[in-house]
């Protein structure tokens, strides 16, 4: 009797898409497109793994410095999510976003500021960064 074999070779595309990142169309709170696309790596990518470690160290150092080693606030949790999402962003289209007099580019510091200013953008970037299903083809 022949052994049954489960071929998972098709998952190599899944891993590659997480490493390369996929582009997500950012929606306004009303569900309409706003003209912004952000390319984000997946949770199993090396970049995402580094992001987890870097964010953990950053926020542990902040807590140690402030002496607040207790439970984090909702505001701190949001900052942590946005820090992770910003580290997972590869690029964005258009390359520059303006909000009033502020300009934001696809670098970590600018993305953190953008996500902090417009939470719905940061929430969508974070949700993409932690969702494996969004990196599956078909």
Task: Give an account of the 3D structure.
The protein has about 140 residues and is of the alpha+beta class. Helices cover about 50% and strands about 20% of the residues. The protein is built from five helices and five strands; from the N terminus they run H-E-E-H-H-E-E-E-H-H. The protein has helices at about 10-20, 45-65, 75-90, 110-115, 120-130, and strands spanning about 20-25, 35-40, 90-95, 95-100, 100-105. Strands 1-2-3 form a three-stranded antiparallel beta sheet. The radius of gyration is 18 Å and the shape is globular.
Q: How large a portion of the residues is in β-strands, by DSSP E? A: 15-25%
Which residues form runs of ≥5 with pLDDT under 50?
A: none
Average pLDDT, rounded to a whole number, is 92
Separation, N- and C-terminal Cα atoms? 34 Å
Structural class: alpha+beta
Cα-based radius of gyration, to the nearest Å: 18 Å
Number of helices, where a helix is a run of at least 4 consecutive DSSP H or I residues: 5
What order do the strands of the largest sheet run in, or round the barrel if closed?
1-2-3
**Proportion of helical residues:** 40-55%
Number of strands: 5
Largest sheet: 3 strands, antiparallel
Task: Note the run of SSEs as H and E.
Answer: HEEHHEEEHH
Which of globular, elongated, flat, extended, rod-shaped describes the shape? globular
